[in-house]
Fold each of these.
Amino acid sequence: MPINNGQLPFEKPLVELREKINELQKFTQEKSIDLSDEIATLEERAKRLEHEIYGNLTTWQKVQIARHPSRPTTMDYIRHIFTDFMELHGDRLYGDDPAIVGGIAKLDGVPVTVIGHERGKDTKDKVARNFGLPHPEGYRKALRLMQQADKFGRPIICFIDTQGAHPGVEAEERGQSEAIARNLREMAGFQVPIVCVVTGEGGSGGALAISVGNRLLMLEHAYYSVISPEGAAAILWRDAAKAKEAAEALKITAQDLKRLDIIDQVIPEPKGGAHKDPVFQAKQIKEAIWTALEPLFQMDRDQLVYDRHEKFEKIGVYHTVD
Amino acid sequence: MLKDLFRKQKKYATIPSEQAKKEIPEGIVKKCPQCGNIDFAKELEKNLKVCKNCDYHYPLSAPERIQMVVDEERFFEFDSNLSSADPLSFPNYTKKLEADREKTKLSEAVVTGEGTIGGYPAVIGVMDSRFRMASMGSVVGEKIARAAHQAATKKYPFILFSASGGARMQEGALSLMQMAKTSAALEKMHRESVLFVSVLTHPTTGGVSASFASLGDINLAEPKAQIGFAGRRVIEQTVRQKLPEDFQTAEFLLKHGQLDQVVHRSKMRETLIQILDLHSGGRVDRADQ
Ligand SMILES: [Zn+2]
């Protein structure tokens, strides 16, 4: 959990150093004493410290950044990356799930379908959106919008940011499993380019249900995991407090997933994480989306399906005994 | 030594009746975990491992299931030479795999192959919950995907018996991605108009329930099988309310429209034969073919 000003615990030494520099600067102005040498030394130290802290983030520190309350959400990215966004609601079967948002927008003038988990902003919004944990109707809305995109030949862009699918009685009654499973199968078959970006938390099947893309991209400090670190710790050591160790063992960072050949590209974040500069972050994502889309625009409909199948067919590590 | 055993197994088609003989439990009597009724193991076998007193369906090993469903000596195994690696160097994973290989005499948690059922050819997959709770790692995902490709190529129906605790945590995101891999393989099959029958047995939960197991053209389940996405305890903690008695049972899913039928084990083979029969011949092909 962040301490004051949205600073995370591991950022504390840096924050303290910055405060000291500020004090000295104030002192210089007020007392007209030249402390520029001292300030320069401290600035140098701050730079080194910044490099040390942000350049060597542990998995658990990344998880904290991915969960930062000020981390930009899908709606932020939609606003910064696209124009003419028109939100479309409902699954036509049961209801409208605000934990998933979707609609049509333009990406530099090109109409695309945009879908993403939405965690919400303030407390009221977060509660209304169930903190971004979708029910089956959320996945079915996403499916409806993707089928629409397929019909009109629009590329699909998905933003993934959820702790997971909602675990609840009604979700089970309405077929949470089936809703996720169907999306996985249908996404594999769409004849349009699909680019998926994991922006924050990639929580298990609930995240995967909108991430069967031709290209899977991940922000530098996002994570993607089969189980939450807390859940894994509870199973492994019967102690949710060991989430830190579990996070390391599960290999959940963007860098881990790149090494395992699961994702295609790691999108850089500003120092300290996306929340430090959402506009810069959006720019980085937009660039990465275009890099992913360009080769896909060269493929015909069958090639797009083939490309996606090939991507997932290749994922897995095992031995073949002769 | 263990390796030799695999070597022998993989060279030849597994003949399930012989395989199953080795799997007969050592105990002479079995106590029903549901009603406490004590039955001779031999008698229980004859009754397809269903308690005569309360109808409890004992879990079956993959060889036992194959023996009960597939025509005798008509099963030829695929891909028994695939075995799990430890890609994340996850604590104790290798040891656990070795122990389960020894215990089950299987190379992994699913057995796939082709055979005939009532004379109808089919691709068949059976998960075995004795092996790592039949959780889905890279090998389980790969074998199921390959079986689906075989079905799509040969135009044989694919019948898959699920039983799984879900994803295999020890393979991290690689395990998660098997959900997409298997579902993509089924998409291909779906496009080729090849029949997929999913039989959900106890328990089918998590990532397996939320991928191939829910994607049957026809979804069947055994009585009282636990089927669901989220674990019962997780849900209880989230909603803080008492869950209905039959929550996440096969009967619950049937009531909520998630299954086509709940099928008693004694009727499973004939039900499958009926489905295969209903899908054989008489097909009106589309005009464009
Ligand atoms: Zn009984």
Amino acid sequence: MTVGLFIPCYIDQFFPQVAIATLQLLEKLGINVEYPIRQTCCGQPMANSGFEQSSISVYQLFVKNFSRYDYVVTPTGSCAYHVRKHFNKIDQTPEVVKVRNSTFELVNFLTDVLNKTEVAVSFPHQVGFHQSCHGQRGLGLSNASEITPDQDGQAIRLLRTIKDIKLTQLTRTDECCGFGGTFCVSEEAVSARMGIDRIADHVRNKTEVLTGGDMSCLMHLDGIIKRQRLPIKVMHIAEILNGNNIYE
Amino acid sequence: MTATHSQLAEAFNKDFDRTTWHDEALWFVRQKRDSAAYGIKEFQELRELASRIKEHTLSNLDKYLVSFEQNAIRNGVIVHWAMDAEEHNKIVLDILLKSNSKRIVKSKSMLTEECHLNPYLQKNGIEVVDTDLGEHIIQLRKEPPSHIVLPAIHLKKEDVGNTFHHHLGTPAHESDPQRLAEAARQHLREKFISSDAAISGVNFAVAETGSVVVCTNEGNADLGINFAKVHIACMGIEKIIPAWDHLGVFTRLLARSATGQSITTYTSHFTKPLEGATMHVVILDNGRTKQLGREDFRNSLKCIRCGACMNTCPVYRRSGGHSYNFTVPGPIGSILSPNLDLKKYSSLPFASTLCGSCTFVCPVKIDIHVQLYKWRQIIAEENILPVYKKWSMKIMATLLANPLLYDLGGKLARYVLRITPDRILNNNWLNSWAKARELPKPPKTSFKTWYIQSSKKK
Ligand code: SF4
């Protein structure tokens, strides 16, 4: 099995450590991973702003880069959702259909394709998990509080198997962080306020390390943590699952 | 130009504590809804059923509307059809003038808000009193509702105390909800007794029997209608359900989704006029058939106006109903309003993170967040977005469709961010980001560069 690693533009540019952890984690599991270097982005930022038409050439580039792999794996639920859901705008050639069906968010890939049920690392910290909306309601990677009180999901299940980890029970389990792509600047006031409230929930419930499957949410939340000088460290779930320690 | 949602939301957010209070008040309602929804095991099946009944009805609306009309006429009800708000208001005025009605009590009608009926009637010398407590409060304050089920949810009890002190003569600084409600009750009682006609909204119109059903908690609709010699029920064409048997599905969902009650206190059925009285039903289109013709947006007409999408919306809770500038605020309003005036309401489909909570909570399964996304596409195509947004998106698309340009752009961005102190980054987007958030510290190399270098070493 060969996996094409898709690293969204902002992770490539600003959070290379997340991409490295993803790569290492997959390689440790014996997967042959390739990173096609002509890749850029899934087109989501433009499409969500109403410019789906302009994204079409970005979609095509994506398919060209990734159609040769058995699976496409990416450490972000939001981009995986975009590829799966919104690449319906281009001609549904066999390549496009294949790419749409074989694109997976990292944790989803670990649990549903590789059938991983536990990870053999230790992480002796109080961890708050931020469930991204696109992962949850878009890809169905976890239960939603609108439907059921049972908090369950792929990422949470994996995290629970980590040695010495403590997971934060949030007051509002799955409220949006307020990032929302260009929303974070076009609706700055509400976006910031949503992030502030999300962080306050984590502070109240004693999170030391904030993690999640979507670096875009985490980038926004980290911006708030840093501005408020709070003692919360932000790590992508790939870093924790890869056994990175908190100081790396 | 009308203010955009983000401008109004920014103003709303200036008061941090009040925003907290507003968010929590509505979150409390969302939680009550959750326990009610978790409380019956067939809740998700009910949603599916309700959605299908509505879809079926919408695709056969022509037939059901006509059979509703025939059955209503058979019951002795006078049925009127209105193309738009103006015609609706004229019809209502006409009925009132012909029946020599001067004093009107009104209840449960977002539709008459939509048509701006009150100012129209007042201009024509008719006194209209909104009798739902929340509606009455905002009527005294001359404000529009900020929520479709809880129209005065933006007001604290102290605000209501002040308003009542001014208008109803309650003691200054009275803020006890019980005593305030009692004062309103006394004041409204007089209005009920002396009213000539009652106007009500309609929650469901049953085609099979020609009846209209009104759901309230205060019983004011019944009181008004039973005292007056004329009853005018105003409804949009989408209120139809085919048969009595379907009603239970909706009444079970409506109250649970709206407030977490198992059923509204009163579910009143009006089928024929009382002895010596007349009953009218005004059926309004006002853009609804246009929406019905839009394939991507048609099913927004399934809405039963429960308000759950507002209570759950993290943006609504933190920006208030008035920031939407439309009769129906929140997620559902943001997909209904562009149908009526794309330009005027063009900021609303962007007032969302597309988190999808509205879609998940909606009792009739409207894919609200998908429709928000689709309206964005139409708004961008119609060229009504700010020019800078358009160009930045086009430039971004070009960059991202071209790996070489992308590499260069990324390098440049990281470099600029690294060497320039946050304070002097003179860019709209970066400034907005940096009001409440630090920018990420850019690393020296991108992952791509790292990957190429480390594969060379291997
Ligand atoms: S869209 Fe759905 S949730 Fe929102 S008011 Fe209508 S029925 Fe209720």
Amino acid sequence: MSTPDPSPHAAEGSLPGSGGDALAARLRAIVGSDGLLVRDDELFVYECDGLTLEACRPTAVVLPETTAQVAAVVRACRAAGVPFVPRGAGTGLSGGAHPVPGSVVIECSRMKKILAVDAENRTAVVQPGVVNADLSDAIQHLGLFYAPDPSSQLACTIGGNVAENSGGPHTLKYGATTDHVLAVEVVMPDGEILRLGSPTGAASGLDLVGAFVGSEGTLGIATEVTVRLTALPEAIETLLVIFPDVVTACRAVGEVIGTGLVPAAMEILDQRTIAAVEDSVYAAGLPRDAGAVLICELDGAAVSLDPQVERIREIARANQASDVRVAEDETQRAQFWKARKGAFGAMGRLAPDLYVHDAVVPRAKLPEVIAQVCEIADRHRLRLSNVFHAGDGNLHPNISFDRRDEDELGRVIQAGGEILAACVAAGGVITGEHGVGVEKRDYLPLVFSEADLDAMRRLRAAFDPDLVCNPGKAFPTTRFCAESNPKARGYDQVPFE
Amino acid sequence: MSEASGAVHSVQAVQQELGADVASMQAPGQELAGQRIELSLRPRDGAELASCLRALSEHEQPVVVTGGCTRMGLGNRLGDVAGVLSTERLSGIVEFDEQDGVLQAMAGTRVSEVAAAVVARGWELPVDPPGGTTTIGGAIATAATGPRRHHYGPLRRSILGLDVVLASGERTRCGGRVVKNVTGYDLAKLYAGSLGTLGVIESAWLRLRPAPEETRTLVAVFASDASGRAFALGLEAARRDSVRAAALVSGAPAAELGAPTGHAAGCVLVVECAGDPGSVARDADWLVAETGARAVPEEARLLGRLRELQGSGRLRARLAVLPSKLSRTLTPLADAGFGVIVYPGAGFVYAVAEDVENAEALATVDAVASDVCADLLIEAIPDEARGARDVFGDPGAAAPLLRSLKERFDPHRILNPGRGQGFR
Ligand SMILES: Cc1cc2nc3c(=O)[nH]c(=O)nc-3n(C[C@H](O)[C@H](O)[C@H](O)COP(=O)(O)OP(=O)(O)OC[C@H]3O[C@@H](n4cnc5c(N)ncnc54)[C@H](O)[C@@H]3O)c2cc1C
């Protein structure tokens, strides 16, 4: 990425470059002065998302409130020959919402209406700026919830979730965002408005919704999303299982999967994560001397849960677990989850910077890969902590570091590449939920051949032949990996409670 | 297609390039899906499949792609083709990871073969296609679905990764073998249900489900004036934890399932409960108490027969309908002479007819679909009734996008020309 453009833009909102004034005027005519940001101090926050080491200031940010405004903004950008970058809450971790030089950011945060809830048919229609957790809160009284639950759900938006195909702890049983999106209204890169899919979830013909979800903002801007709602389970049991170390915890997870149980969630926190959590406001009484804990949640028909809890206990015991605690009430359950979902925030205390990896391996390979990951971090003298969606084989090795220490930063990047390579060698992939974005675009060749990527480019070109919608993401650049992948994040900026 | 003499020359060139092991000329007069077939291609592995497509592309010879040939009538009318490209020899389970519950199978492998292999090891293949010889590739290409859809979800949900050979002959991969993955675009979603119009599936990684500990099938019969209650119960059943399939059947298919015929003919509710014994017993007891349903022995193959009925009929339509509007579909469709199968949990209504006045019956289907805002898919239609109709429905504003996709994935239109939505 290029460095931020240091030249200050004129205070009263003209844009740099030829035709900049005309574009600013057009954008202002569409969204009003109130919906257009052009001053340097306003643009500053849009330089990056949760991937903070790289930054690039956009020329303008627009805050549309309606689909028609989004479409008009896109057409204005097209007419001016300016690329545009959709943005939700900016919690993305792979740089998906990073501006490119000269671009206009289209932030959907003001499009936050829940347009309709249809309890009988279990669907809701929302604008893209609706915050994930707000949707579940709004429908809880109907006995329903919106299943995808990223740990950032108090901040991230449905639009961002759709773009990243976000997951969460409960993806194990309920699936990721793609399994819950029925239809999307899209402002296409040429400014046309297109409706993909159907509220029935079974539109005839090609599955364009499936192709759109997870496309990282490169195929168009989602301006309305119809989602599937899920009935709250009749009963829930949440277990906290204490293990001597993270490898045995992983082994137990593999065994649970192999036995044919499908818990709603299986999350592992290693010792360093436990310590960080217990030292923070998310403290949940986790045993500090445990090598690792597994949060295992079971849900469904009440009659079916007791036997499952028993089987988990047996598997845990057979894998050296020292204790299995069953949450006694909703308060304790909430506490376990607070510890889990606050873990990233808690880690922010360990060092100035935190680098979160996101990779997936076959579940049966978890024990050996986690051991490799620890070895890689040790070898590079790095502080590693692990908190991850073990049930899905989705690792989040987190490295705490200080970006001002250049040598350490170099080792962080080196180790990161080795971790991804180890996951791929085990049959895995380089991202399970955070996306490729800017961060991992040059690691794609670890997983895909040029022909594979070319097939993806065909899809891209059918939607966006001129590559103006969120350019520079999700496909390799010709640049060398290390050069384009310095990374670090400020997790503590995201609220959890 | 070019002139007859030129075309023959090119077909032969394809055959010669590929050799007799893979390609053979057909005896004159061979037909498939209403098209004359001169050439038959039967690659044995991905490399041969790639060679086939490369040669076809070079010589601009279109083909119809086949798996188990159970659903050749799906989609729009096939355009002119020179030959058939069969995946039947791309067969076998490549890898089965029992610990992880995932499996890779070649496209030409029978679904039934895979299902049997995994069930023996405690897993279940979440694919329930209508045809007995359906292949994995065929099921994916048609996005096959059956009575268990509301439980399994659409087939695309179980696809982890695909190896696909593009029309150009390039061998590509999307997705992977892991159960959670956002690495690269989710092209598998695009290929699933694309009827082989964008590429030829070579193999697939699929996610399995744990095989249920117990399965029970129950049947309840309702009088014709009780169909409202039957709908309510069917929907309620579908929302219970252990209910894996729920179907409401009326008309000729109901009679085949053992419903009384004649004037009092009503409908039949078929429910399959599966899972842990506690939930199964609870849900089955509930159904018996509510409806007087009786258990049906496994040998009756009730679900299998349901799948066959769902795929029957010279005229067949599928309507995807929101649950709240489902009950408005049954009577008008039944009155127009259709056998009707409703899957309340999935929101699918199948209207099947063997012998009706096509134009009139189609008009009824269109009217019902528009009344309940259904997504209508005409799955089977006699050629004489087809007209200019796009069986997927008018793509409307999406037409340029669909054309552009076809153009980019299959510029020479060698793959199942004409079959896709808006591709004509
Ligand atoms: C502490 C923390 C925990 C996290 N935990 C998880 C987790 O458990 N699981 C998980 O999956 N992710 C997690 N994330 C990552 C992040 O929250 C998700 O990727 C989220 O979906 C991003 O949403 P957003 O609204 O912030 O989108 P942004 O970051 O603003 O944008 C993300 C991408 O979406 C695109 N985009 C945004 N809006 C639209 C739109 N309307 N139309 C088209 N494209 C659009 C952007 O261009 C960009 O490419 C976490 C992040 C943090 C900081």
